[in-house]
Structures are given as structure tokens and as C-alpha cells.
């Protein structure tokens, strides 16, 4: 009889409620010492919140890393991790120090929330192991590039390729531009699912186009802006890319320096007869991206985004694909730090009407821990203490409400990527 870890129950904020992490597919029959499958697809279930899925590639170790590094939220703003009370306090104290906000007394769990002294409950099964693949789940295969080391600044690199190669329309436009460089094309085609192709790709892009970080330098010296480097690559490959600055939606065309400190002209202008890309850059903005926008006589469709936080010095990526059901789309959140720990992108199904309002509930945030900083990457661009105020009862926080409306610590910058709508081209 095979025994395997089937579910992890995390106690909720109301007695009797749980968030469940359920194994829905074992992609490998092998199990670790904890009887957890080494590679599997897990569903994150919580009533009142959109169902999410994540691929965990290192068995029980990945589950432990997921619940230590991240805090999952539900629709009632209840938080779930390995030790909610401990992490709530730790995150609150860290953010108070960083922003200069006084907590104003002892931090207490909000009165309407149950104190959760108990940790996760691990539930086992002896039924047949659910082996097989899941249809229509790209992010379960395209897990993306792992962070190189714990102190590496290469998060921008993995985010760049997830935003470009995950959504089929962006992928098609970019690969068409690689026609003159078959080596580049071949490496790009497999980079999201073959981590061993990342370093050859990085070396090729650096040596051929002087783009990115020097692969020979120490990992902690790495660090670039994903959109800026992508713009340089579009210039080199002559891929049409329009850049707008939100919220004014004014076109920006300027030369950028490459790794050799040469000024590279901007990418070619969009030709109405060719598929093209459009980026909308936001700097600490609260701009809400429409699913479709009009510019230059063409219609443009939202596909992905690079999300960067100055507050924690990190970049990740959001990207969408059409799901199997009509009118439903799948979004995926990629984090190179998570992939390094065996945690694939978190995915969820939503609709064009609901996706934006759901982001604060479906996107986890990173905990302040021994190995990570607090990091809220939600494009809603919240003040760090706003999240603390929502999750905890903190004396004196009401008096800080006005300061939290300022942009001083709202430091999330998002670059949204669109493709031209074929139906709007001549």
C-alpha cells in the first residue's frame, strides 16, 4: 500500500476554516522521506477565493519553503503561512522600521481573527496516486529560470524571458525577429523549461549584442531593468516596439546604453503591416492597465508585465494565456527566487472583468525572514504598512492613514507589455 502526502491544512482566521494545499497531480511517482511526491501539481483551495495552482519540484522541502518564504491571502484578508502570528509581527516590525512609522504599542491580532498557535496539519492518503499531466496549464511546464544564488541580482533576467516567452502572442512576435539568429531562437524556445539553457543564452546575448550583465562577474553584482534590456534587444533584432509612459500615455523614444556603454537607438517604430509590441511604463503609479487599448490607429492587447519593487530590490513577472474555457484566461506569477527553491509559478483562472480586482487576493507576498525581505509585488502599489494595517490591529495606525496615501514608500514599478491586435491591422 502506497502512502503519500495528499493535503496540507492551514488554519484560518475563523474557527473551522482552513486553506488547503492539495496534491492534484503527481508528475513523478517517487516520494521523499516524508512520503511527499518529489514533483507534483498542488491546488491552493480556500472558500471565497479564486483557486490557484503551483508546481512544487522538490517534495516536502518545496512545501516548507513555500510556507516559510511566502504569505498566501484569501478574500477576507486572512494570511496563511507556516506560522501566521509570528510572521505577521515580524513583517509589521520590519516595515515599521523601514518606513519610520511607529507601531504605537503592542501589536495584537485583530479581535475578529482567531489566534492560530497551531501550525499546518499534514494529511496522508493510501488511495491510488494521482499520476498524469494537467491540460491547459502552461506554467506547470514553463516554470522559468531559477535565481542563480541567494544573493544574485539576476531576477530581472528570468522575469524578462517569462514575460516574453510565456504568452504565445509575444513569443510569436519575438521569435519572428530572431530569424537572422538561429542560435538565439533555439535557446529562447527552451529557456522556460530547460534551466541549463539560461547561461548559454545569457552568454550569447552578452557576447553578441552587449546586453545584460557580464556572465563572468560575481552574482551579487548583477542587476538590470527587464524592460530596458528588452528594449535594447528589440533594437538589435529590429523588432517594432512602442514605449508609452503612463498615466500620460505619451510616446517615449530615446537611446539606451548597452553593456559596452554605446548609445543604442530605440527600436523601430510600429509598422501597421507587421505585428508589433507596445510597452506601457509606470513609475510608482496607480495606473490600471486595460485589457485592450488604442494607440497609433491600432488596437493593442495586454499580455504580460515586469514588476519591480524598489522597496525590496526585486523583480518578478506576470503573464497571461487563454485558458481552455471560453471567456476565461489564466494568469501566472513568476518569481526566480521561488523557482530556485523548487516552487514554480502560481497560476489562477480569471476573467477580463475580474483579474485586476483579484490581484491583491491571489498574489502572495514575501515574508521578512532570515533569507528574504518583506516584498509586496502587487501592481496595486500599496504602502507597506497598508498591508500591515489590514492584517493586524495596530494602535496608532489610523493616525498614519494620511501618510500612507503618499507615494514615499509606494515603490512598485510595472512595465506592461501589449501585442498588436491582428484584427486591427490593415
Brief characterization of the structure:
This protein is of the alpha+beta class. The chain contains 12 helices and 19 strands. Helix 2 (84-99) packs antiparallel against helix 11 (384-391), helix 4 (155-165) crosses helix 8 and helix 6 (182-190) runs antiparallel to helix 7.
Ordered list of secondary-structure elements with their pairings:
Elements: E1 4-11, E2 18-26, E3 40-45, E4 52-56, H1 59-69, E5 70-73, E6 79-80, H2 84-99, E7 121-125, H3 138-141, H4 155-165, H5 168-177, H6 182-190, H7 198-209, H8 226-237, E8 241-245, E9 250-251, E10 256-257, E11 263-264, E12 277-282, E13 292-295, E14 298-309, E15 314-322, E16 329-334, H9 336-340, E17 343-350, H10 355-362, E18 365-366, H11 384-391, H12 401-404, E19 412-420
Textual characterization of the structure:
The protein is an alpha+beta fold and 426 residues long. It has 2 domains: 4-134, no CATH class; 140-374 and 411-424, Cathepsin B, Chain A. 26% of the residues lie in helices and 25% in strands. It contains 12 helices and 19 strands. The chain has helices at residues 59-69, 84-99, 138-141, 155-165, 168-177, 182-190, 198-209, 226-237, 336-340, 355-362, 384-391, 401-404, and strands at 4-11, 18-26, 40-45, 52-56, 70-73, 79-80, 121-125, 241-245, 250-251, 256-257, 263-264, 277-282, 292-295, 298-309, 314-322, 329-334, 343-350, 365-366, 412-420. The strands form 3 sheets. Strands 1, 2, 3, 4, 7, 8, 9, 12, 13, 14, 15, 16, 17 and 19 form a 14-stranded mixed β-sheet that branches. A hairpin with a 5-residue loop joins strand 10 and strand 11. The mean pLDDT is 86.
